[in-house]
Design goal:
single chain, alpha+beta, four-stranded antiparallel beta sheet, 19% strand, elongated
Length: 590
């Protein structure tokens, strides 16, 4: 039947139902909304298909109500524990069924990673009614619950960047195939004493160099670049995963590598004593800095030494012999003192040439942030130490100028070769007096106002900050996907005369590459700033810091703390009516 009265249904149970029995049956039918619909004066009998749909909806509603009830009890307790710093608060919480606990934890992780996620927004709105209006509430609750550690880097969740080593486990077979293909037994070996210069924390070593002079005093510079592109599986799941990582991240809590570590840290890295295939760029440069000859090829090389900036800096100095004699500890850079001084000499020539072309060079030393476990119970489990490492300005100029030289030259050659590449551009006109090296905070603030962030482009346009007409990075293929892509294009041109990807194909890929690169860059900038703010908090609000007013307007003043390499904003009235850029001051941070 499709419909019947309450009495008809009551007669299925009783021979002659009385009024109370009919009424009881009527109420039972009315409540059973999954199978019956009241259509006065009778009840419609729903089809089996409609009943199944309603049963499913009822089950979902029941589960949702259970989640709501559990969350309304749990979340205020977690937030209270957060405010009282009772973390983790598991001993204070009610027992939950595993399924409910998992659902609530998943909800918090979803809101943490994607605050604008649509599916959970209505449910979250129900919970957040009784919580403060703070965008970090999901993080506070997860920390108090013990589901994430203190100082959890949720920005990695936001960009989908998986830390650790599990992310590349599924690609182990493919990684082994890449390593086997990249051995390059038939490639010519270049027997020169190459050296690399990096920070002690760097594990994915992208570049090395050798420098000498010919009989006419021309510089012969050879730059060796690690070459993962020689055997890269373009279009594979590994390629797509690495593209989404976009860049290696060097954070105070540790490095996160773009490449799987068996490739980026071990098999492809230019580690001293290991024979590697490399993209070799050879320059012949006049004493005035003009490029007389340039060629790029695929070779095998062995790096002789992996040096650090601080070690090399000691030898770019006229007094290094006295220093070395007074130092009992041998310096691994000592055998390369002559080459290092020649390299700095060339770098100065190249830098001066760029400044003539309008380059804006910002010198803003970055302090070293060291995180220590804090055994003191009841306090922050991490103690932040801020150190100013020994200056290595000359060595950094040397390596920086070599990389700019390579990337600018490749960009120029790509136009000649009609080779689609990914460029970094800063297409803006700057006043001529902005060219130069800037160190004072107020000067940096003035100049930077006119410099928009560099952007990714598929067409060669000027890079105003670098003072060059076009710039396409190939110097860090282990650390940046844009460089890996460009290296693949260059190698394909060298080997076959045609690119791997056409201009049209690059156009389709570029939005994702640019978005992922920007996302990784944002984490790289934000995370050190976060730890600096933790450092200030741990120092307390009674300590004074040396600062310089770098910028001001009618409402705010921007102060630059040079030792801590951070800029902070405060109301201008704090500094008095005569506050102006360049004014020295001392500040406390609340």
């Amino acid at each position: 039947i499709t419909h019947a009265s309450a009495r008809w249904f009551a007669e299925l149970l009783w021979q002659e139902p009385d009024l109370d029995q009919v009424a009881a049956c009527w109420h039972a039918l009315l409540e059973c909304k999954t199978h019956f619909k009241f259509n006065p004066p009778d009840f419609d009998v729903l089809s089996e298909e409609k009943a199944a749909v309603r049963l499913h909806e009822a089950e979902r509603t029941e589960k949702r109500n259970a989640v709501l009830a559990a969350g309304r009890t749990l979340f205020p307790l977690l937030f209270e524990a957060h405010q009282k710093n009772q973390i983790p608060a598991k001993a204070l919480l009610p027992e939950l069924e595993p399924e409910l606990e998992n659902q609530l934890e998943t909800l918090l992780h979803t809101r943490l990673a994607n605050p604008d996620e649509h599916e959970t927004s209505l449910l979250w709105r129900e919970f957040s009614k009784n919580l403060p209006d703070n965008p970090h509430i999901p993080l506070f609750l997860l920390e108090a619950w013990g589901k994430v550690p203190p100082h959890y880097n949720f920005s990695l969740d936001r960009i989908g960047y998986q830390p650790g080593k599990d992310w590349f486990r599924e690609f182990e077979t493919q990684i082994e195939e890449i390593l086997n293909s990249a051995r390059g037994e038939g490639t010519e070996f270049i027997d020169l004493p190459f050296i690399s210069v990096d920070t002690p924390e760097t594990e994915d070593l992208d570049d090395a160099f050798h420098l000498g002079k010919d009989a006419d005093a021309n510089y012969i510079l050879q730059l060796a670049i690690a070459c993962p592109a020689v055997a890269w599986p373009w279009g594979s799941e590994l390629d797509k995963t690495v593209l989404r990582r976009a860049s290696s991240l060097y954070l105070p809590e540790g490095s996160l590598h773009m490449m799987p570590e068996p490739l980026g840290v071990d098999g492809m890295s230019l580690t001293a004593g290991k024979e590697r295939q490399a993209m070799l760029a050879r320059f012949k440069i006049s004493p005035e800095g003009e490029i007389c000859e340039f060629d790029v090829s695929l070779k095998r090389i062995t790096v002789q030494a992996n040096l650090f900036y601080e070690d090399c800096e000691a030898f770019i100095d006229c007094e290094f012999v006295e220093k070395e004699a007074a130092n009992a500890k041998p310096n691994p850079a000592a055998p390369y003192a002559g080459m290092l001084n020649q390299a700095y000499e060339l770098a100065q020539v190249m830098q001066a040439k760029r400044i003539e072309q309008g380059a804006v060079i910002i010198k803003r030393p970055e302090p070293l942030l060291i995180l220590h476990p804090n055994p003191d119970q009841g306090k922050d489990p991490v103690r932040v130490e801020l150190l100013n490492p020994p200056a290595a300005d000359k060595t950094q100029v040397m390596i920086g100028e070599f990389m700019v030289l390579l990337n600018a030259t490749i960009a120029q050659k790509a136009e000649e070769w009609a080779l689609p590449l990914i460029y970094r551009t800063q297409h803006v006109a700057l006043p001529k007096d902005y060219a130069g090296i800037w160190e004072a905070p107020e000067d940096i603030a003035r100049v930077v106002k006119s410099l928009p962030p560099a952007s990714i482009d598929q067409f060669p346009r000027p890079h105003a900050g670098l003072g060059i007409p076009a710039y396409a990075t190939v110097s860090s293929p282990l650390r940046r996907y844009t460089d890996l892509f460009n290296q693949g294009q260059v190698l394909s041109h060298l080997q076959s005369g045609v690119p791997l990807f056409s201009q049209g194909e690059l156009s389709g890929m570029l939005p994702l590459i640019a978005a992922r690169s920007d996302a990784a860059s944002s984490v790289q900038k934000q995370r050190p700033r976060y730890w600096k703010l933790v450092y200030f908090k741990q120092q307390g609000d009674k300590r004074w810091y040396e600062a310089v007013i770098s910028d001001e307007n009618d409402v705010f003043a921007i102060v630059s703390l040079q030792n801590e390499a951070i800029q902070l904003r405060a109301k201008r009235a704090i500094f008095g009516e005569k506050a102006m850029p360049g004014q020295l001051c001392r500040v406390r941070i609340g």
